[in-house]
């Protein structure tokens, strides 16, 4: 199996053709930006295998990477950083759904190594602009992540449960945490997404029960559901507001 590295960004996707089939515009960009004949040939052959897709996820992903750039100093991230301060322990951390790497870069400043993964090439492209040497980012699917059986001192997953089936994702994230170390999750529980809605949503009570069942003790500060304001400025005349629940768990077994 081959994983292309395009513009210094590893795309660790098990089915590269499937990845491009949902992102045809991005595939065209890959073809024009490939700096070797071997890479151009690889991308061209991959594009020849995919079916035409009327929707293009890459357009949405590019737009959202710009939105996150505009909101990187959001109060929401400041609140998350405050909660993380007591558990920073100079270890190895991983953020799922890292987008442009706002929190991953923050964690890299107080930990030995930090990694971030996200489906969006554009978001990872922005995240890779960081100058920190103990930090790296990959395009990858959380449910098919590239880390094997590696365990981490802190695993972070912010606002992912409406995008990825919560139960499989939670089980995976919990399994990546070392004993006596930390899992940090948040979500606004915005599950009403039409055809793209997850099949088995978890809400503020059920997610705490599931985390406890996975062997975690929930911190006193996040035992009760929270309502952290996440105010996203979309453009000059529109904002999107969520009230986000934060859960911090320490692995006990």
List keywords for this structure.
Rossmann fold, globular, 2 domains, alpha/beta, 253 residues, 9 helices
Summed up, what is this model?
The protein is an alpha/beta fold and 253 residues long.
Oligomer: single chain
Instruction: Kindly report the name of the CATH homologous superfamily of the largest domain.
Output: Vaccinia Virus protein VP39
**What is the CATH architecture descriptor of the largest domain?**
3-Layer(aba) Sandwich
Q: Note the beta-strand portion.
A: 25-35%
The CATH class of the largest domain is identified as: Alpha Beta
Task: Give the total of beta strands.
Answer: 10
| Secondary-structure element order, N to C | EEHHHHHEHEHEEHEHEEE
Mean pLDDT across all residues, rounded? 94
Shape descriptor reads: globular
CATH topology of the largest domain: Rossmann fold
Secondary-structure map with pairings?
Blueprint: E1 5-6, E2 9-12, H1 16-21, H2 24-33, H3 37-49, H4 57-70, H5 75-84, E3 92-96, H6 102-108, E4 113-118, H7 121-127, E5 135-140, E6 152-158, H8 166-175, E7 177-187, H9 204-213, E8 216-218, E9 228-235, E10 238-251
Parallel strand pairs: 2-5, 3-4, 3-6, 4-5, 6-7
Antiparallel strand pairs: 1-2, 7-10, 8-10, 9-10
Helix pairs in contact: 2-3, 4-7
Descriptive notes:
This protein is α/β, with parallel strands linked by helices and 253 residues long. It has 2 domains: 5-55, no CATH class; 65-251, Rossmann fold, CATH 3.40.50.150. It contains 9 helices and 10 strands. It has helices at residues 16-21, 24-33, 37-49, 57-70, 75-84, 102-108, 121-127, 166-175, 204-213, and strands spanning 5-6, 9-12, 92-96, 113-118, 135-140, 152-158, 177-187, 216-218, 228-235, 238-251. Helix 2 (24-33) runs antiparallel to helix 3.
């Amino acid at each position: 199996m081959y994983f292309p590295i395009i513009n210094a960004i590893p795309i660790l996707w098990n089915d590269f053709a499937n990845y491009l089939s949902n992102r045809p515009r991005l595939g065209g960009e890959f073809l024009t930006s490939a700096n070797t004949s071997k890479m151009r040939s690889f991308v061209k052959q991959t594009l020849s295998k995919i079916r035409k897709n009327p929707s293009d996820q890459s357009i949405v992903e590019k737009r959202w990477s710009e939105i996150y750039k505009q909101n990187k100093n959001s109060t929401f991230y400041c609140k998350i950083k405050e909660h993380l301060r007591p558990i920073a322990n100079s270890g190895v951390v991983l953020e799922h759904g890292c987008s442009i790497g706002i929190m991953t870069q923050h964690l890299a400043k107080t930990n030995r190594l930090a990694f971030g993964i996200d489906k969006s090439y554009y978001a990872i492209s922005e995240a890779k602009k960081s100058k920190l040497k103990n930090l790296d980012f990959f395009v990858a699917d959380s449910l098919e992540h590239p880390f094997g059986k590696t365990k981490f001192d802190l695993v972070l997953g912010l606002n992912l449960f409406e995008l990825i089936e919560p139960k499989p994702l939670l089980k995976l994230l919990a399994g990546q945490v070392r004993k006596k170390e930390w899992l940090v999750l948040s979500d606004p529980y915005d599950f009403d997404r039409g055809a793209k809605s997850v099949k088995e949503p978890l809400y503020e009570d059920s997610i705490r029960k599931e985390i406890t069942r996975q062997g975690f003790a929930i911190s006193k500060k996040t035992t009760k559901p929270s309502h952290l304001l996440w105010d996203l400025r979309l453009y000059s005349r529109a904002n999107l507001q969520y009230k986000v629940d934060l859960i911090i768990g320490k692995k006990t077994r």
